[in-house]
Each structure stands twice: as C-alpha cells, then as structure tokens.
Amino acid sequence: MIPTAHVHILAALLFGLGILGFLRQRNAIMLLMSVELMLNSANLSFLAAAREQGNVDGAMMPLFVLVVAAAEAAVGLALIIILFRKRVSLDVDLLRSLRD
Amino acid sequence: MPGPLTPSDWLLAAPLLWLAGGVVAILVLDAFRPAARHEAGLAFLALLGAAWSLWPLAEAAGEPLEGIPGLPVRAFSGMLEASPGNAVVGLLCLGAAALAGILSLRSLCRLESGRHRTALWTLLLVAPAGMLVTLASSHFATLFLGIETLSLPLYVLSALRRTEEGSVEAGLKYFLLGAFASGFLVFGMALLYAGTGRMDPGAVTAALEGGALARAGLGFLYAGLLFKLAIAPFHLWVADVYQGAPTPITALMAAGTKAAAALALLHWAPPAGPLGSGAWALLACATLALANLTALNQENLKRILALSGVAHAGLLLFALAALQAAPGSGASVEAAVNFYLVAYGVSALAAFGALELLERRAGGHAEASALRGLGRRFPVAGGILALAVLSLAGIPGTAGFLGKYFVFAELVRSGEVGVALLGILLTLWSFAYYLRILVVLYMKDAAPAGGPPAVQDTPAAVALWVPAVLVVLLGVWPAPAHLL
Amino acid sequence: MLAAYAPLLAWLVLVLVFVTGLLWVTDRIGRPRPATGKADTYECGMEPVGDAHRRFSVHYYLVAVLFILFDVEALFLILWALQARELGTPGLLEVGFFLAVLAVGWLHIWRRGGLEWDR
Fold first, then answer.
1. pTM of the entire structure?
2. Is C82 on the interface with A (CB under 8 A)?
3. Within a domain: residue B439?
4. Residue B3: its pLDDT value, please?
5. Residue B41 included in any domain
6. How many Å apart are CA B221 and CA B232, to the nearest integer?
7. Which domain holds residue B418?
C-alpha cells in the first residue's frame, strides 16, 4: 500500500503548483485552472487521510468540493466570456479600471 | 445511519427551506410565465418566511443561556450550531438581502429591460441562505458549503451590470481571488483532517497540540477565512469589488458577508493556546492602520466606505484577542461580537443605501467631486448617510459607538489595556476620513446635476428609514441587543 | 515502502518499451508511400476548412457550462445507486426529491432557450 505521507506530499506539490500558476499566469482561464488544481489537491489529501483514519468523513468532502468546483467553473467561465466580449483579451493585468 | 430529523434540525433548517423554496418557485414561475411580475413578491415572501421561522430562536436572545435547555441549538448531528445571538445576526443577513432587493426594484431589476430579473431575485435568496449556514457552521462540510453558497451568488450579482466595465471587472476579480481563497480553505481543512482525524471545531484544539501537518492546516484555514472577512493582508480586493459592484449588492456584501464570516471565524477560533492573543491583536492593529492609511487618499465614497468596512473587520479581531487572553469569557465575547456585527450591519446598510440614492442623482458616480453638496439638495438621503457615517465613526449616541465600546470593554476586562488603548487611538485616527465624507456632503458649492433625472424611488426611500432608525435605537436603547 | 510503487514502475517501463519498439519496427519494415490525404489533419470524417482560430457560437460555451453542472450531479446518483437496496424506499424518495429540484433548474434553462445552441 502506498504510504499516506507520499500522497500528502504529492497533494502539497500539486497545491504549490496551483499557487504558482495562479500567481504567475495572466490568462483568466489559466487562473481558473490553477484554482481547480488547488481544490483537487485538497481532495487527494482528504481521500488519503480518510483511508488512513478509516472513517468516511474525509471521503465525503471531495464530493462537495467537486460540486462546488463545477459551480465555480460555470460562474467563472460565464464571467470570462463577458470579459472577452468586452475586451477581446483575457489578460487579467488589463483589469485596472477600478482604482482611485 | 442518521435517524429522522429532530426538532432542532427543523429549527435551523426551516429558514433555509423557505429560501430554497422561494428559489424553486421563482424558477418555475419564470419558466412558464416569463413576463410575470410576481417574482419580487415571491422573493420577499421567502425572506419574510425565513425571518419568521428564525424568530423563535432569536427571541430567546437576552435571556440567560442557562435558562433554556439545549442552547446553543445543535442540528444535523452537530454540523450546525447556533445560539439566539447568532440568530439575530442571521436576521440581519435576511434584512440586508431584503434591503438590497428593495433598492434594486427600480434599478437593477429594470436592467436591459428586465432580462436579469430572475437571476437577481433567485441569487438574492441563495446568498443569505449561504450566510445562515456559514454563521452556524460547526463542521468542515457546512463551513465550506456555506461560504461557497454565499460567495457564488455574490460573484454573479457583482457583475450584473454586465455592460459596464467596472461591474464585470469587480465580479471577475472577486471571483478569481475568492476561488483562490477557497483553495486555501479546503486545503487547510484537508490537512487538519489528516493531522487530527476530526472535522468539527475540536480539530482546532487538537491541531494546536498536534503535529506540523495539522498546524500548517490551521494556517491555511485561517488564511481562507480572513480573506472572506477582508483582514490585512488579504483585504486588497475589497475596495475594487465594493466600488465596481452595484451599490445595493455592495450593501449586502458589507453587512451580510462580513457578519457570516466573522461568526464563522469566532466558531473556529482556537481556545486560549500557544498562539496567544498577540497574533490577533497584531493583525487587528495592522488592518486598522492599513485601512485608515488607504482610506485617507480615496476620492470615491464607495471605496472609503469599503475601507471603513475593512477597519471594522479589523476591530472585530480585538474580540478574538480578548477571548485568547481570558479563556473563560466565551459567552460575553460572543455577545459583544454579535452586537458589534448588528451595529455595523445596520450602519453599513444605511450608508450604502443612502449612497445608492445619492449616486443616482449624480448620474451614477460616487466620486467626491460628483457628490459634493448633495446633502443640502437631498436632505433625507444625505441626512441618513451622515447619520450612518457618524455611527461608523463611533460617535456616542449611535449603534456604532456601543458596538466599539463593548469590544474594547471585553479587551480591558481580559487585561489587555495597552492593546485597547492602541485600538482606540487607531479608531480616533479614522475620524479623519469619516469627517471628509461629511464635508463633501455639505459643501457650499454643490456639484451640477449630472446625467438624466433619477426615477422617483419611493420603496427605497421608505425602506432606508429602517436601518437609519435602528442605528439610533440601538445607540440609545441597546437593552434588547446587548444581551445577545 | 517503495515496493508499493513496483507495479507503477513496471507499467512505465512496459509503455516505453512497447511504444519505442512499435515505432522502431514500423520504421524498419514499413515502406513510405506519401499521399496528400495523409498530410491532412483528419484522414477521414471532418473536412478541415479554414484555420483553427475559427469562432464558435457563444451558445456552445453555454451548453458546455450547463453540461459541467449536470454532469457533476451524477456523482450523487452513483453514490445512491451503490446503496440503493439498503436505503430502501426513504432513499428512493430522497433521491427523487433531489432529481426533482434538479429538474426545476433544467426546466428553467429549457424554457428560457438555454438549450437551443443553433440559434
């Protein structure tokens, strides 16, 4: 059996990759994908921990996370489409009309 | 396997069922009679029903907790937990949604000839449902679902004026940063669960005694929660989002989201432990100082009020610091926080509501230059905004003053007199920008009327009196509320 | 501890050997017969016309987004289906209620024209 610690390390690496992607990318869709990566790395950790603990609490969370991630993707893609129609660009660095 | 629902399950589920039922009814109505004008009526009915079913719990506020068996109410195998004081904050969230709805009747509702009406009314019901779940959450699942259920509708509502660049930008910024924060929240939960094997607030206690994994999880969890509460250094989104979102929605975010996130943080706060009160006090002072510093240089009144909200959230952390310093003070700290949230909530509702009416007279602009002198031309809306600003500043005689007083009293009682003095000084500093709003409102050379003449909006003008009266009432006669 | 990963390593090696082997064998025994059809993007089916940056109808994205939402709800159905007999009638009623709520959302999308992607 694969040790739980290894799964947590993989999850942490994926989570770090997600953060890095979010901070380095400028395309709104790439930011959305980075967030999805972060959420799914948490799912991995939940499942590994649930297997180790032997209770189903941790196995239940990924279901909710997946549903919320789908809803987030739907809302996010809708917002991105509106932005694209207005700007014909998805570069988030151009989002600077709100300032003082 | 869980058994049938108990009475306390129903007590906490009933408001949510009213709201969800309202959403379903509106969707069905819109599917078959798209032109029907009853959607607003259904939405207000659902909000009223939710408030009515929450009332029995809220009514118990003020009575000693020991007198009522089974308080705080625990429901759904301990996944939700609420005290009467929390229920009063829940009523505030429902009221905020109702006020946002009334303010939208003549504006957002008519956007693009009413195309987004259904979206507006359903989302105005979903957001308070998420707030109610969040403020009563005592399990990772309810905390996460509650926060997402309140956030997702607000992302969409912020971008509702989709033809305006600022609104879309606010929605997208709020969405991207909010989703990023959700990632931290969930990963923190996963690590806490991996480290402690628990998913209830007991996981926090266990984590403080546990290993590095759980402690790291705690850090991620608080980063996610502090983002929602807009505490420095996670406060940078607030000014942009509040400015870009339609003002009725901003009012809902200021009063509702803040209250729900603050109560969630209180539920999930660590008991006195190695973290100590210093960390919370430091965060509070940093947030107050940064918010004050930024607010002084703003031209847009919505941005100033947004940063005032950041400062108020920072002040709440002083209550957490008091809890850390004096472990036995849980009940009285919670009462102080509940009152503070209600006081800030009604002040923010009055401020943003009045600002929305003035903004319409100024052609949709909230810059100081566009609003100058409008307090003279429109005495009622201007007067309510001025009153709300006085309450936000914390002038004696208003709800805002007593809210601050109770928090600082808790801090002094816990022995942190130095921190309390520092906090009071930082609060006095904030008077500078509140004063500026008043000066702008009552300036001699009034701005020329901009844009087309605004529609007469009687419902909004009438509804605005409710938070305004509450600001005064809670300031001079806090008896019903300060025992929360 | 690392022994747990042995099947993964074996699979990796097998994949590499198989793929490189196959490529090597075709390279050695095959005879190249160039033809215009082979250079096409698809050897059969869709006719590639224009460049890849053609614009899609926005409705396509709408349908894609709606698909994600309803797709994920199937997760809950699978969980119920695995335990359907044990959960009995109450479980059936509950999952029926869940589907009814979903159906309201679907009904709303349908009536508002969200599914008409050829407009």
1. 0.89
2. no
3. yes
4. 66
5. no
6. 15
7. 275-484
Considering only CA atoms, which of B82, B60, B61 is closest in space to residue B137? Answer: B82
**% pLDDT > 90, chain B:** 55
Residues 43-102 of C with CB under 8 A from B: 101
Structure tokens belonging to residue B234: 């996670």
Interface membership of B452 toward C (CB under 8 Å): no
Question: How distant is the alpha carbon of residue C86 from its chain centre?
Answer: 31
Averaged over B341-349, what is the pLDDT? 95
pLDDT tens figures, B386-430: 999 999 999 998 999 999 999 999 899 888 888 899 999 999 999
One-letter amino acid identity for B139? Answer: H
Give residue C104's domain range. Answer: 2-111
ipTM above 0.90, yes or no: yes
Q: Specify the higher pLDDT residue, C116 or A53.
A: A53
Q: Quick check: is C69 in a domain?
A: yes
Which chain B residues contact residue C110 at CB under 8 A? Answer: 31
Q: What chain A residue is nearest to C76 in terms of C-alpha separation?
A: A63
Domain boundaries, chain A: 4-90
Which chain B residues are Cβ-neighbours of C112 within 8 angstroms? Answer: 30-31, 34
Inter-CA distances, B398 with B121, B344, B378, B381, Å: 32, 10, 22, 18
How confident is residue C40, by pLDDT bands cut at 50, 70 and 90? confident
In a domain, C102, yes or no: yes
Q: Give the model's pLDDT for residue A53.
A: 87
Average the pLDDT over B276-296 and give the result.
89
Q: Tell me the per-residue pLDDT of B83-100, one tens digit each, with 9 for 90 and over.
A: 888 899 999 999 999 999
- What's the confidence (pLDDT) of residue B194? 92
Paired strand residues for A91: A27
Q: In this structure, is residue C116 part of a structural domain? A: no
Number of domains in chain C: 1
pLDDT of residue B66: 46
Q: Do C105 and B30 touch (CB under 8 A)?
A: no
| Residues B288, B276: Cα–Cα separation, whole Å | 20
Q: How far apart are CA C43 and CA C116, in angstroms?
A: 31
The subunits that touch chain A, with at least 3 C-beta pairs less than 8 Å apart, are B, C
Reference B355, options B306, B301, B408, B396; nearest CA is B301
What pLDDT sits at residue B202?
Answer: 87
Say yes or no: A35 contacts chain B, CB-CB below 8 A.
yes
Query: Using the beta-carbon criterion (under 8 Å), do A70 and C58 form an inter-chain contact?
Result: no
pLDDT tens-place string over residues B41-85: 999 999 999 999 998 888 776 554 444 555 678 888 889 988 888
Taking the C-alpha atoms of residue B391 and residue A23, their distance in angstroms, rounded to an integer, is 39
**Residues of chain C neighbouring A78 (CB-CB closer than 8 A):** 65
Q: Does B312 touch chain A (CB under 8 A)?
A: no
Q: Which of A21-35, B2-16, B239-253, C14-28 has the lowest mean pLDDT?
A: B2-16
Residues of C in contact with B32 (CB under 8 A): 111
Domain assignment of residue B312, yes or no? yes
Pick the CATH number of A4-90 from 3.90.78.10, 3.30.450.20, 1.20.58.220, 1.10.287.3510: 1.10.287.3510
**Number of domains present in the structure of chain B:** 1
pLDDT bin (cut points 50, 70, 90) of residue B1 is: very low
Number of A–C residue contacts, CB under 8 Å: 31
- Interchain CB contact of C110 with B (< 8 Å): yes
Q: Between A3, A63, A81, which is nearest C58 by CB? A: A81
Cβ atoms of B261 and B234 within 8 Å: the answer is: no
Q: How far apart are CA B160 and CA B108, in angstroms?
A: 8
Cβ within 8 Å, pair B183-A18: yes
